[in-house]
Each structure stands twice: as C-alpha cells, then as structure tokens.
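Subject: Sanity check before I submit

Could someone independently write out the structure tokens for this chain? I want to compare against mine line by line before I put it in a report. The sequence has 398 residues.
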Amino acid sequence: MEPLSRNISGHYALEKKAILALCSSHTGYSIADFARHLGASIPKVTRIIAEMVEEGYLAELGKTESSGGRRASVYGFNPGAGYFVGIHVEHESISVAVTDFPGNVLHMLDGIPFQLEKTEESVRAMCREVNSRLGAIDIDPSKVSSYGVDITGRVHRVTGYSYSFFISEEKPLRTLLEEEFGKPVVVENDTRAMAWGEYVCGVASDENTILFLNVGWGLGMGMVLDGKLFYGKSGFSGEFGHFPLLDNNLYCRCGKTGCLETGVSGLALHRLVVEKLSEGRTSVLSPAYKKGAEITLDDILQAMEKEDVMVIECIEEMGATLGRALAGLINIFNPDLVIVGGRLSVTQRYLLPPLRSAVNKHSLNIVNNDTHIKVSRLGKSAAAIGASLLAKDHVLHM
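---
Independent answer below. Compare away.
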C-alpha cells in the first residue's frame, strides 16, 4: 500500500480525506455517523468506507451498543496503514518518534548522536541517519506517510524556513528535507511541537486552552488556543523568553536587555550559580569551581539532586520570577492548563512552589482559580512525539 499522502486522489478523494480527519479526533464512527458529518447519503458513505477498508486505511473496530436490533459496525484508523515520524533536533543529538495512524507511539529513539550544521550536506546526512535508524527497528521508510522535524528558534511553518539553520534564500529547510525523504515534511519550532505532543497525548485531558512553557537553556512558549496551535500573524508567536520584564540590565542572546530569559532559563540558572560560587558561597560545586573546572548545567542539576542549598536557592529565585511573569499570562489568556516542560522541568520540586506562590500573589483570583499548573508527562520525548503528530495532521488536512 502506498503512503496516504500519495494514494488519496481521484473519485471520493475529498470525502476520504474528510473521513480520515474525523478519525483523527475520535476513536470510531458508524457509517451513519460518517454520513451525518459529511452530509452524504448512507449508500454513498457505505461504498467509500468499503473502499477505504480495502485500501487498508480503515478497519472495523467493533460494534455499537444497542438496546435492541442489529448493532452497527464502528470504523476507525487501521493501525497498520502506515507511519508518521517525528524528529527532534538538539545541539548534539536527535531524537526520533514513530507513531501509527491512530496516534500510538510505537518507537522512541532518544539521544542519537548527530550535530546538525548549517549546510545542505549536513541536512541530507541527518535524513540518511534517521532512515537508517528506522530500518534498524524494522520500520520501512516507504511506509512513512510524512515526517515532522522540530528545531529550536524561529521557524516559519508555512514557508518551511528555519532561521536558526538558515541555508539559502532559494531553498528552505523543508525543501531539503522533502528532497531527501521523498515525503511531505512539516518543519516546526520545538516548543510548539512539545505543546502539541502534551495536548494530544500528554498531561492534558479535556482542556482546550493550554500554555506550554519550555524551560530549557532558553525560555519559550507554545500556545494551544481553542484546540489549535497559535502562530500569530508572522508565525513567530510564543517568544515568552524575550518579554521585557526584568530591570537587571543584563544583555539577552537577542541583543536586548531585561528579557525574562535572562532571569529564567538554563542560561540564567548557570549564571546565578556561578555568581554565587564567585562570591564564596558554599556548595558541593565549590571544590571544582576553585580548581578552575568548568561548571556545566548538568553539574548544577546533579547538585540539586544532592539537595545543595545554594543551587536550590537559585532555582527558587527563578521560580518566583517565572511565577510573576506567568501571572500576567494567566490574566490575559485565562487558560485551562499551564504545562511546565523542557530540560529544567526536573527542578519541579523546588521550582513550582515559589512559582505557584507568585502566581497567586500577582494574578487575579477570579481568573487563576480554574487554571491548573502541571509538569510535562512526556518529558524529553515531548518534542519528537509532537512533531510526529503534527506530521499526521498535515497529511490528513492537506
């Protein structure tokens, strides 16, 4: 069977795509349900469903419950119809998630060593590495319907350009990826991919308005508003880390001063810890610092696990700052749910109490009363899983 992106064409193509889109948001429908949603006759829908079962895209999932009479068959995605692959690009590694048509995560490959460079050859080498890894777990790349690639920084989902890995005016990153994979590709910002992963199969349940905070080396935000990812006019929404909240005269990586990221991020935590070490504060990191050894973010997180008081103080200071900023977002968006994810979500034990305290102090009670704050369930896998789910949505709605 050919991948979905190449096979749904010709007679009934629009109806078939509409049926697949319906199946992506519900576990199963009867023929009468499909007919009602499509505004089509039951005989017509019966023919279409029969074709889609024969083609391998749909399968009978069971029967409807009935108090009497004949029970109707329920149809939904055939798990064996094909695959969607999500690729999360980090500084020195990539992670790959493979999902099936219903959205189940079949494989999760974390921490594959690879450093993507700003060259065409490096992008093509990454694609070959991904397909090699898929082959090693018996996933036939020809059965992949589409790929999703998420990457840090500013990404324009419509044009396919990544401004972090900008290669040329003539050829956006998406074009290179599609040339190498030979399939449709979605290029997305990593934080939005994380937000979508958590919304579809993570910590979110029935919430439709979600703010996802990616607290990593930097600070980003993904927004799901009324069940849809929000991009803004130019596609660059969510630059929460560059909100000019702080009066600290510290230069941000963007070149401006006072950005929230200078007080809340892995970069900020590293700076706070090193500053206190330079002041002579006692820490399990002190011996290494005095010897001139480099103090890394991993060292700091390991010190936290050892309940290092100085490191915990720095995390708590960050939590209070983030909570104050989050209070403003809650006042504006009145979200159902705020999810804290990213690399520093492991600091939740010390980050969340001052964060929640600051939210209660600075936001309106009538607004924050129904907002829940939770930590990411998918953790480091959120981005790759989210990218694979976005690849699925792209194909079903293209």
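---
OP: Matches mine. For the report I'm noting this point. The two ends are 19 Å apart (CA to CA).
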